[in-house]
TrEMBL record:
Name of the protein: Zinc finger protein 271
PANTHER family (UniProt xref): GASTRULA ZINC FINGER PROTEIN XLCGF49.1-LIKE-RELATED, PR DOMAIN ZINC FINGER PROTEIN
Gene3D superfamilies: Classic Zinc Finger
InterPro entries: Zinc_finger, Znf_C2H2_sf, Znf_C2H2_type
Keyword Membrane: no
UniProt keywords, alphabetically: Metal-binding, Nucleus, Repeat, Zinc, Zinc-finger
Ranges of residues in domain C2H2-type: 31-57, 58-85, 86-113, 114-141, 142-169, 170-197, 198-225, 226-253, 254-281, 282-309, 310-337, 338-365, 366-393, 394-421, 422-447
Domain of life: Eukaryota
Protein source organism: Labeo rohita (Indian major carp)
Length: 447
């Protein structure tokens, strides 16, 4: 009986002989392509020549598409039959082509067999490597057919061309909105699911997109990356800087078609238009209040559930929103960032500045729908409209009296409570109403 090492040697020698025989046989049958010099067997050379001649002898009977090889035609036929014989061993997906299956399975295995020889980066698909290589020499072979822009990857070109064509292939399954990028659709869907995976580690507020969180973090860091080259003022967002630049140019690009008022930002115009429409689509399920914006409804609902998650470290007062806390903190710091462009007065709140500036301009953008009277502030219009409606929404807790204004109700309730919040600094006497205090000072101390 032949020993094990001897048997192994015999098998190895036999294998080498077969390999040599195969090489010799192949060399005899090898034919060179006259166009590119590549070598093939006779039958394979005939197929290869179609690369140069462009000949496509095999036609699909369903759609008329032509192919160079029968194997390619057979694979193509699976599109019409819907047959997907190549099933993934890791998930339920199936594919018409074996090559597509192999590329897909690399998602599960993490295999990246195609490596860039310039930077060492690896890719799961050869096509991705080829596109990546365009980055290194700075080559941009893909040109937009609508403008002069060029791209180093075909995918970037396709995305860009949607700007010109207006194509929005990614449609939301919850509403009719469409998007030109899959990432934009993914971010939009979080509105419906209310998913907010990115949480602030400072205050706990969550956001649907990482970019939104990054912008929000500037609230805590006070980082202002975008600086105006005209006046040196800095801003947390580039969009704020763009809007600010219009102050220097005096340009207000967005006019209201109802009253002619113009705005620096389109977002301000959208908010303003709701004044005319009186549109309030967001209603509170716990009371009868409605809101023009979803964010305002959400903030309002915190009143009912008593959530006040933002605390002032100076006085420990708590607030429903981070913006309310920021506004409150100006009381302690004394900050009045909003300066009137007509006089030296400064204000803590932007809204107060806007209302004040109407004293100088005489602007009264809020018109009563029942008479011709106009007002500089929306709150004055609301109070006025109660004259027409006879509405008195504020009821006294101690008697049946009702009032059209909250301030009048509070003043009235002091009759029942005996509260005297206004005191004279000269003699210490206390009063229920500020008007009574003013009269007292005038008559008793200013003689």
């Amino acid at each position: 009986m032949t020993s094990s090492p001897a048997r192994a040697f015999t098998q190895s020698a036999s294998s080498l002989l077969r390999r040599e025989k195969f090489k010799k046989g192949r060399a005899k049958k090898s034919f060179a392509c006259a166009q590119c010099g590549k070598r093939f067997t006779r039958s394979h050379l005939e197929i290869h020549m179609r690369v140069h001649t462009g000949e496509k002898p095999y036609t699909c009977g369903q759609c008329g598409k032509r192919f160079k090889q029968t194997a390619t035609l057979n694979r193509h036929m699976n599109i019409h039959s819907g047959e997907k014989p190549n099933k993934c061993s890791h998930c339920d997906k199936s594919f018409t082509r074996l090559e597509t299956l192999k590329a897909h399975e690399r998602i599960h295995t993490g295999e990246k067999p195609y490596t860039c020889d310039q930077c060492g980066k690896s890719f799961a698909q050869k096509a991705h490597l080829i596109e990546h290589k365009n980055i290194h020499p700075g080559e941009k072979p893909f040109k937009c057919s609508h403008c002069d822009k060029r791209f180093n990857q075909s995918g970037f070109l396709r995305k860009h061309e949607r700007i010109h064509t207006g194509e929005k292939p990614y449609k939301c399954s919850h509403c009719n909105k469409s998007f030109n990028r899959s990432a934009n659709l993914k971010a939009h869907k979080m509105i419906h699911t209310e998913e907010k995976p990115y949480a602030c580690d400072q205050c706990g507020k969550s956001f649907p997109q990482k970019g939104h969180l990054n912008v929000h973090m500037r609230v805590h860091t006070e980082e202002k990356l975008f600086t105006c080259d005209q006046c040196g003022k800095s801003f947390k967002q580039s969009s704020y800087l763009k809007g600010h630049m219009n102050i220097h140019t005096g340009e207000k690009l967005y006019p209201c078609d109802q009253c002619g008022k113009t705005f620096l930002w389109v977002s301000y115009l959208k908010k303003h238009l709701k004044v005319h429409k009186k549109e309030k689509p967001y209603s509170c399920s716990l009371c009868e209040r409605s809101f023009s914006r979803l964010a305002h409804l959400k903030e309002h609902q915190k009143i009912h559930n008593g959530v006040k998650e933002y605390m002032c470290f100076e006085c420990e007062k708590t607030f429903i929103s981070a913006s309310s806390l920021r506004l409150h903190e100006r009381i302690h710091s004394g900050a009045k960032p909003y300066e009137c462009s007509h006089c030296d007065k400064r204000f803590r709140h932007r809204e107060n500045l806007k209302a004040h500036e109407r004293i100088h301009t005489g602007e009264k953008p809020y018109k009563c729908s029942r008479c011709d009277q106009r007002f500089s502030q929306s709150i004055h219009l609301k109070r006025h409209e109660m004259i027409h409606t006879g509405e008195k929404p504020y009821t006294c807790l101690h008697c049946d009296k009702r009032f059209s204004r909250l301030g009048t109700l509070k003043s009235h309730e002091r009759i029942h409570t005996g509260e005297e919040p206004y005191h004279c600094t000269a003699c210490g006497k206390r009063f229920k109403h500020s008007s009574s205090l003013r009269s007292h000072i005038k008559n008793m101390h200013n003689k």
